Amino acid sequence: MVNGIRREDITSIDFRNVQGMKATEDEKLKRVSQEFESVFVAQMLNIMDKTIERTGFISGGQAEEKFRSMLNQYIAQDIAKSPTGSIGIAKQMYEQMKRSI
Predict the structure, then answer these.
(1) Which label site among 21, 59, 63, 90 has the fewest CB atoms less than 10 Å from its CB?
(2) What sign does the CA torsion over 88, 15, 47, 3 have?
């Protein structure tokens, strides 16, 4: 784990789509930017979730932890793809990288 980002989160980004045959460079850059924002937001949600006090009365153990992690990842992907709900990292990253290409 580096700066709160787990290696598996970064390796889960689907770079095959980035290197796809039909997508233009612009579309690839947008997709990668959204994937990056998705990983960032998922990490943020996972950290926020750990601050919630669990009473232990109804605890799902490891299965619940895995489910919450998967749910946070899904929510993060949805946020990153949303044109109005995005936190803006993808847009900023896209614009910055587009200038350098």
Answers:
(1) 21
(2) negative
